[in-house]
């Protein structure tokens, strides 16, 4: 199986600790986290030996137009457009 993307050799911050890992992504989702060099080929490969990866993290910040341009977008609109938790 070929993954869409493989991030190779990143320092991954995981639930069970921090370790080097290959992170495979297929269909926009993490499909596997393997020991470095063990992931199957990816259509796109990213060498990440000097980088830190936070698989599964969600960027919680938002850019909105409050205060000031609330006629264009406000905090309530941003909250309604966010994906449901879970």
Chart the SSEs and their pairings.
Elements: E1 3-14, E2 17-26, E3 29-34, E4 42-47, E5 52-53, H1 75-81
Parallel strand pairs: 1-4, 1-5
Antiparallel strand pairs: 1-2, 2-3
Characteristics:
single chain; 86 residues; mainly beta; Urease, subunit C, domain 1; five-stranded mixed sheet; 1 helix; elongated
Summarize the structure.
The protein has 86 residues and is mainly β.
CATH arch. level architecture of the domain at 1-56: Roll
CA radius of gyration = 17 Å
Q: What top-tier CATH class of the domain at 1-56 fits best? A: Mainly Beta
Overall shape: elongated
The CATH superfamily name of the domain at 1-56 is: Urease, subunit C, domain 1
Quote the average pLDDT. 86
What structural class results from the helix and strand content?
mainly beta
Number of helices: 1
Unreliable stretches: none
Count of β-strands: 5
Sheet with the most strands?
Answer: 5 strands, mixed
In whole angstroms, the N-to-C terminal distance is 29 Å
Q: Say what the CATH topology of the domain at 1-56 is.
A: Urease, subunit C, domain 1
């Amino acid at each position: 199986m070929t993954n869409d993307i493989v991030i190779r050799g990143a320092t991954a911050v995981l639930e069970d600790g921090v370790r080097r890992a290959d992170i495979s992504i297929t269909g926009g989702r993490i499909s596997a986290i393997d020991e470095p060099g063990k992931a199957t080929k990816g259509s796109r490969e990213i060498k990440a030996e000097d980088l830190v990866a936070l698989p599964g993290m969600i960027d919680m910040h938002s850019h909105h137009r409050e205060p000031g341009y609330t006629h264009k977008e406000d905090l309530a609109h941003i909250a309604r457009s966010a994906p449901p938790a879970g």
